[in-house]
Every structure is written in structure tokens, then in C-alpha cells.
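> example.struct
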């Protein structure tokens, strides 16, 4: 998987999405791309990170954020919030060895916390463009995308609702990016329904997979060579039905599939992005279209001792912010995943 990322940028532009509903916001005509003088993505990383409940300290009556208040069960105050912003900025910067071109964020409360993270530490000088929409999730947690303006321009964005029976979940965030030399990249940021309810939650993740697959099929019908990046916390592993059957993502590079899951291709044994009772798995994943696959150099979790601690029973685990209601002061209960292209 080692071809030049510059090759991607020299190729013809991919087609725009087709949908029965209009885009939430289309920016493609706002600025002529050549005037932006975008830089090629050579050598830049893409990071996706479940940041474990990045809430501010203000009460929002529209959502269930009571625990994340100074008077709440978690005693979430401004000092803890600022510490978390600093640590998340560090973790992202470490994982990319600099400023990522794109940052997919999972478990953020609102646009404000995303903007404040983007303005923290080593991320600040990039002046990231924030793409965020409030989701119908009962806890108020959303997904977001940070776009480095030197390397990509947001052409269109849309929250894709996941219809569930008697339940609500996070929207999938779809973003179409313009790159240098008329390149296009379609990005989906996901946070699929939790596994907390056991097998009864499987249809919920299948519903999320269908939403992504339907939009994906529309993109590929318009342009079979569309370059598509799907990332996020899927609350399933690459071997589960929602990924294998719902999305149709393969783990074999020689497959004739239209999607390929990078987190089941050449991963170090025993690694993952999340540890549950001593078992590591890749709930956080990068999935790419067939046209993007040859341009991928590497994709894996960022395993670094600064983001890990040794659990007395389960061994190395992500250094989380909370264990239940016990404040640990760590980074997140997930590790960031990093995609590199050449």
C-alpha cells in the first residue's frame, strides 16, 4: 500500500454526493479552489480520536449533561476541563508528529468544546476549520471534523440521521473536501450505537451501517473512482456483522470489495484502540474505498506509554479520564488512530 499521496492529488476530481435530500450546506461555489493555493497532503497524518466525553462545564437544558457540571456526580470543573483539553491536544500532536491534516473527533458535547480544543497547545497555530452539527443523541454527544486549511477546503457538509425505533443516536457527519490540484475526498465521521445493551444493540449498528452504505453507493454510482474515508468509533470490531455485512468492508487487499477496513490489515498482534477487561480491539477504525486503498501507507492505533497505564488485572490500557465516577485525570479511554498516506 505504498504509492504517492501526490498521485491522489494529481488525479481528476471525484463526483459530488447524490442524495434524495439536499446538502445541509454546500460551500463548493464560495471560493475558487485554485485561489486557495492548497498544499499537497504529502507526509501529513489523519487522526481519529474518541476523546471520552469532552464536555464543557456549562449546563445545557436540552441534553443530559448533569454529571459534567461542577456540582454534578463527576465534579467536572474548569480545572479538569482545561487539563483534558491540554492532554487531548498533546495526544493528537504526538500521534501525528505535528499538526494532522484532518482530525476526526468522537464524543464531543458541542461546537464550543471542539473550537476550544482546536485552539489549545500545538493545535492552535493550524487555525483548523471546524465542521460540527448537533446530534439528537440524548446525552448530547456528537462527532466533528477539524480540517487544516492549508491542505483542504470544506466544499459540503451534512449530518446523516440514523433512524432507530424508540431510540436516538449520533448523526454520521459527511464532509466533502476539496484538495490541491482539484482532488476530492469524501469523509464520514461515525459514532455508532453502544454495545451496552448486548445483542439487542446489533440492529442499531446495522442501521448506522445502512445509512453510510446508502450514501456510499450514491457516491460510487456518480463516480466509481471516488476516494472515500470512513472513520470513527463503530462500537464493533472489523470482524462484526455491521462492518463485514452492513458496510461490506473487506480485510483482504486483493478482494473485489468497494471498501477495505485498514484495522484488520497488517495490524500488530494484540494491539487495538480500546481495551475491555484485558481484550484489545479496534472499535475505532479507518475504512477506505478501493480507489483510496493503494495510496495508504499505514494505519494503526498510536501506542505510546504516555497514553497508557498498567491496570493491575488487565495490563496495559488507555489512561482514561474517569473510571466510573473516580477521576483518574488521564487522556481518554480510547487511543487515537492514525492514517498515513504517501
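> example.seq
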Amino acid at each position: 500500500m505504498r504509492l504517492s499521496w501526490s498521485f491522489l492529488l494529481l488525479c481528476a476530481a471525484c463526483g459530488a454526493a447524490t442524495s434524495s435530500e439536499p446538502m445541509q450546506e454546500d460551500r463548493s461555489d464560495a471560493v475558487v479552489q485554485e485561489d486557495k493555493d492548497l498544499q499537497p497532503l504529502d507526509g501529513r497524518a489523519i487522526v481519529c480520536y474518541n476523546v471520552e466525553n469532552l464536555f464543557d462545564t456549562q449546563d445545557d437544558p436540552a441534553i443530559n449533561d448533569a454529571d459534567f457540571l461542577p456540582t454534578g456526580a463527576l465534579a467536572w470543573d474548569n480545572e479538569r476541563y482545561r487539563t483534558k483539553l491540554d492532554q487531548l491536544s498533546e495526544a493528537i500532536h504526538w500521534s501525528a508528529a505535528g499538526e494532522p491534516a484532518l482530525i476526526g473527533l468522537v464524543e464531543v458535547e458541542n461546537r464550543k468544546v471542539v473550537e476550544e480544543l482546536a485552539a489549545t497547545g500545538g493545535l492552535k497555530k493550524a487555525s483548523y476549520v471546524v465542521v460540527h452539527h448537533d446530534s439528537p443523541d440524548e446525552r448530547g454527544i456528537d462527532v466533528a471534523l477539524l480540517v487544516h486549511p492549508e491542505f483542504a477546503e470544506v466544499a459540503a457538509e451534512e449530518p446523516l440521521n440514523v433512524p432507530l425505533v424508540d431510540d436516538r443516536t449520533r448523526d454520521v457527519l459527511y464532509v466533502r473536501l476539496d484538495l490541491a490540484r482539484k482532488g476530492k475526498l469524501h469523509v464520514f465521521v461515525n459514532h455508532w450505537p453502544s454495545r451496552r445493551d448486548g445483542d439487542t444493540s446489533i440492529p442499531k449498528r446495522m442501521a448506522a451501517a445502512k445509512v453510510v452504505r446508502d450514501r456510499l453507493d450514491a457516491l460510487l454510482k456518480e463516480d466509481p473512482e471516488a476516494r472515500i474515508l470512513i472513520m470513527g468509533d463503530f462500537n464493533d470490531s472489523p470482524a462484526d456483522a455491521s462492518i463485514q455485512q452492513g458496510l461490506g468492508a473487506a480485510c483482504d487487499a486483493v478482494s473485489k470489495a468497494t471498501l477495505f477496513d485498514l484495522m484488520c490489515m497488517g495490524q500488530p498482534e494484540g494491539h487495538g484502540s480500546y481495551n475491555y477487561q484485558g481484550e484489545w480491539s479496534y472499535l475505532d477504525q479507518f475504512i477506505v474505498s478501493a480507489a483510496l486503498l493503494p495510496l495508504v501507507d499505514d494505519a494503526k492505533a498510536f501506542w505510546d506509554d504516555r497514553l497508557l497505564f498498567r491496570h493491575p488485572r488487565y495490563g496495559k490500557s488507555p489512561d482514561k479520564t474517569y473510571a466510573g465516577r473516580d477521576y483518574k485525570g488521564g487522556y481518554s479511554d480510547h487511543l487515537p488512530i492514525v492514517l498515513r498516506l504517501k
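> remarks
The domain at 5-341 is CATH 3.60.10.10 (Deoxyribonuclease I; Chain A).
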